[in-house]
Task: structure prediction
Amino acid sequence: MPTPEGLAEQFEQHRAHLRAVAYRMLGSTSEAEDAVQESWIRLGRTDVSGVENLRAWLTTVVARVSLDMLRTRASRREDPLDVHVPDPVITRADGDPESNAMLADSVGLALLVVLETLEPAERLAFVLHDVFGMTFDEIAPIVDRSPAAARQLASRARRRVQRKAPNADADLHQQRRVVDAFLAAAREGDFERLVAVLDPDIVLRADGGALAGASRLVRGAQAVAAQAASFSKLGLSNQVVLVNGNVGVVSRRPDGRPFAVLGFTIGSGKIVEIDILADPERLNRLDLSAIEN
Result:
């Protein structure tokens, strides 16, 4: 039987992986931390002396915990949220994204938004198989299905992801050029240049939480350009950062408080999606230490 100290040391070796699994399952950094903490508690209550692969055992535990949290969340939600933007993970634009454990195999906000539309069991099967390479024999007991049924869950989720998730340019330099052009056009109030940098079918998703009138879903280049033009009149300062591994922006009020986090999805040199978190309560909980000087 491992000593408590040895068990704690082994757990810490797997913490970043467990947090990555939980974050992709839940789209919430705080809930992901709660799921990881619960897996640590369960580890302390369990005799794992016969466990050959502790990483796999812990992955299964954090997946079960996350699935329970997703199901509880779904049952409590009386009305589906019209607009919800998952918690962004923010790092410096001039830093090394590989140094951030959460972004080691980064997942963009646009994909997380699509994952939110899946049934809990579908999301688990897709995340564990397609992202983390678990077999359907391993996934089946977690969702109380046969391996064949687990495969069907993942397949159904994969089709929805492929249909709904935009194809994104991975080149950060290309992303930066497009975002800089967008910010310059918005700052100068140049409507035509704004429209030119937006995909004709762009989707803007703004989550203002309980802030009256701040949540909205806007489609089309003309409508999004109008939103961006009005946004630029608020006297905000913009810091270019990485949001979930892609170029994004933290907008701040004159007193330095965050006003919004903007995540951009760039495809074929145009902005195809903008995801904005403007919920003051959630903004206050964000860890912005990585981008502060």
The radius of gyration is 20 Å.
